[in-house]
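hey so i finally got around to running the thing on that chain from the lab meeting. sorry it took forever, my laptop kept dying and i had to restart like 3 times. anyway pasting the input first so we r on the same page abt which one it is
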Amino acid sequence: MNLSELKNIDLKNLDIKDLLEKVKNSELLKDKKFLTKFGIYFSSILLFLIIYYAFINPKVEAQKQRINVMLQNEEQTRVFKGEITGLKAKIKKLQPDYDKKSKLFHSQKEVEGLYQNISDFASTNSLNIINLNKENPVAITSGKKKKNVAYFKIPVSYEISGNYLGYLKFRRALAKSNKVINFDREQITVVQGSGIKSVGTLSIVGLPDEYKK
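ok and heres what got predicted. didnt touch it at all, straight out
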């Protein structure tokens, strides 16, 4: 069998055994140039396959895995961004209510800070604190059966003396505090030769978890 005979083979009616027999008896196997070229081509293909599967393919597969991880990370990032946007919207919606409650309620630590503020404001305005005392918290209940404690009212009694103008500045400083302070009772009397004396009670509000026994 020569090359022209190979070209004329009908692939549709190809008989493998017959083809192998023809190739075995073919003149091509006797052609050294053909065998040399065939050997070179076959060796090149084999070498390429060895290099590809030994060196190139692992790198390609590793690259594919990195791309898959990157795509997964991009998808997770997209989901996280959506969740963050939703959380920001919720925080923005809840912020006014939080600010209102944060300004209204005092923690036990903030009550101690209130004592310090009263002392500082009084000292700054040349006032003398005669008495300053935190009284027992009073539970304010809610509901029909009045069993649920909505919040605690913490009264603070005081007695301050000094200049009337200084006392007004003291009151204004307390009114500008970040937390709500209620003046429940106040009695101001003039003290001959020493200004005024104010006796009263102010109160603050605390959350149930902070003050319940």
